[in-house]
Amino acid sequence: MFKQLLSLYPGAVLASGPPDQLKPGYHWFLAHDQDEWIGIPEKSLTEKELDLLRALFGSSEQPASIYRGYLEQSWHDFLFAAGQPPASDDVPRRMIQFQFDGESLDKNEMEPALKGFFADECMVIWLGDEKGLVIENNKGYIMGEDEFHSLASTLESDFYIKTYFYLGKFLPINEEMPRLVQQEIEFFQKGMKLLSKERIYTFERIFPAMLSDSIPENLRHHLTREILPVFDEDPEMLHTIKVFLENNLNASSTAKKLYIHRNTLQYRIDKFTDKTGISLKDFNGAITVYIACLLHELT
After folding, report:
1. How does strand 123-126 pair with strand 162-167?
2. Which backbone phi and psi does 93 adopt, to 5 degrees?
3. Where does the pLDDT of residue 65 fall: very low under 50, low under 70, confident under 90, or very high at 90 and above?
4. Please, what's the b/e burial string for 33-70 (b: 16 or more CB within 10 A of its CB; e: otherwise)?
């Protein structure tokens, strides 16, 4: 694969040796099977390309030798280096991406803590100091978003780190799997940029934000004129309406999450409807308002 990279990046060079002995001004990546480094000029890589290469190889900003057992390395090679499928069974797998943000992270402590939350055997593949994948099959109990919120809270309180998860889809083990996993990696990175306050990500949670981020200017101006002024006048209303929509228009659970009385919630909803003329009970109205909420947060 390094030969292909050399052709794609004319300024790239090959070398052997630890990263502290390598030429500065380059991003360095290691081929674990060949113990060889490739350096690509920093100016030649876009942010997206850099994230992809780090996921594939690791880099000099990460440990040069990320230990993987045989099976873990086989999965890594299959997903990121055009290797052969590491399993012959037909049991689908899903990739739970994780990323940590904190100091003094000890992977020897983190890995057992991660595995301990899963009911069945799972596999952890580290892709750097602070990120990686948990490979899970669908034979046993499958954790949902609420359980991962609890896991994130536990890890943050025990290890004093911020924790982020992306819950992938169960995928068959075939030639399409590496491409689909790479898409999920890109969705995760995009989600953390657009929804930085979130801890648990899924495609369904990220997609509306991606849609809002790509709205043409003329539609942005229309939303700005019709809906966003209400949120500018009353920021509390923005939070209330967004939580109400995210809780499937359930007044009881929304009031509980906001620590307010149901009557207070209803008053705010009625006030929003009076000012905008949009009923949140209408599906089209609700989805339009939710996109407006996301757009307000992104601008």
Report:
1. unpaired
2. -125, 155
3. very low
4. eeeebbbbeeeebeeeebebbbbbbbbbebebebebee
Residue 104 has which token pair?
């003094």
User: For residue range 160-181, what is the model confidence (pLDDT) as tens digits?
Assistant: 899 999 999 999 999 999 999 9
26 burial (CB, 10 Å; 0-12 / 13-18 / 19+) is: buried
Write down the CATH number for the domain with range 215-298: 1.10.10.2840
What secondary structure, in 3-state letters, does the chain show? CHHHHHHHCCCCEEECCCHHHCCCCEEEEEECCCCEEEEEEHHHCCHHHHHHHHHHHCECCCCCCCCCCHHHHHHHHHHHCCCCCCCCCCCCEEEEEEEEECCCCCHHHHHHHHHCCCCCCCEEEECCCCEEEEEEECCCCCCCHHHHHHHHHHHHHHHCCEEEEEECCCECCCCCHHHHHHHHHHHHHHHHHHCCCCCEECHHHHHHHHHHHCCCHHHHHHHHHHCHHHHHHCHHHHHHHHHHHHCCCCHHHHHHHHCCCHHHHHHHHHHHHHHHCCCCCCHHHHHHHHHHHHHHHHC
Total-model pTM: 0.71
Q: Which two tokens stand for residue 24?
A: 């500065």
CA–CA separation, 9 vs 11, rounded Å? Answer: 6
CATH no. for 70-203 = 3.30.70.270
How many residues does this entry show for the chain? 299
What's the token pair of residue 121?
């055997």
Domain boundaries, the chain: 2-57, 70-203, 215-298
Encoded tokens for 111: 């890995």
The dihedral formed by the CA atoms of 134, 140, 145 and 151, expressed in degrees to the nearest 10: -60
